[in-house]
Amino acid sequence: MSLPDLALQIIYARIAWGLVAAAMLLSVLPTLLPRIFPQLAQRSKAIVAITIAIMMALPGAGSPAYWLTLIFQYPSGLLAGYSLVALCARWTGRPVDFLLHPVFALVLTLVGIVLYLDAFGVLALGLYYRGFDSDAATLLAIAAAVAGAAAVLMRRAVSGGAALLAAVLLFSLLRLPTGNLWDALLDPLLWAWAFGSVVVTARRYYYSRSGRPVTAPEPASELVHASGVEQL
């Protein structure tokens, strides 16, 4: 399995972290900025996007992407894809939701648990290293692409399906972010998001079955929409 060029990885890190940061900030700042600067109400989204792009493009350690990569490694292609979908949704004013689709969230959570236990030596299956293997990675990429295409064509979890297809395409063409297919489909931030989505969805299901009302979040708190991806 060929590995990506280091220059491509650096460029990818800046673009991917820029997408993730913009998706998170655009969930909060467009609500706060108009209250502070009413004249910026129509331009707040563009201001946030341009500012983040400039900051991420700074050379070396001057870029936030440099430090984010040191701490969290590269964002997965799937997380970058979700962030891009979120930005498109917010830019066009479509409704968005914090939670991942329940099926996607559950699959990512379970896969992440197995991979992390394997990486810690608890299971010792060597699954992560199979992501570098040409045959195993090809079969997994095909399965992921089929799942993503099915989600889009069946109009179920369209956002997740589109993000999954983008991640597989990015890996297939450029081997980004690391040359390992697992890194293209999962990272610690995405796993935490998926796990949180599973917990919240399970809580809602429990309350709906028990007939107890679920406390609605406060309208002013949009931090729960940090990802800004619609759930379809």
Description of the molecule:
It is a single chain. Mean pLDDT is 84; it is low at 216-232. The chain is 66% helix and 0% strand. The protein has helices at residues 6-25, 29-36, 44-56, 64-72, 77-91, 102-119, 127-130, 134-153, 158-174, 181-185, 188-210. The chain has one domain (6-225). It starts with 5 loop residues before the first helix and ends in a 22-residue tail after the last helix. It is built from eleven helices and no strands. By secondary structure, the protein is an all-alpha fold.
Fold topology:
Layout: H1 6-25, H2 29-36, H3 44-56, H4 64-72, H5 77-91, H6 102-119, H7 127-130, H8 134-153, H9 158-174, H10 181-185, H11 188-210
Helix pairs in contact: 1-3, 1-4, 1-5, 5-9, 6-11, 8-9
Key terms:
11 helices; mainly alpha; 232 residues; globular
Return Rg in Å: 18 Å
Listing every helix as H and every strand as E from the N terminus to the C terminus, the arrangement reads HHHHHHHHHHH
- Helix count, DSSP H or I runs of 4 or more residues: 11
Query: In angstroms, what separates the terminal alpha carbons?
Result: 35 Å
Q: How would you sum up the major sheet?
A: none
Structural class: mainly alpha
Low-pLDDT sequence parts: 216-232
What proportion of the residues is helical, as a percent range?
55-70%
Number of domains: 1
Total beta strand runs: 0
Shape descriptor reads globular
What is the mean pLDDT? 84
How large is the share of residues in beta strands? under 5%
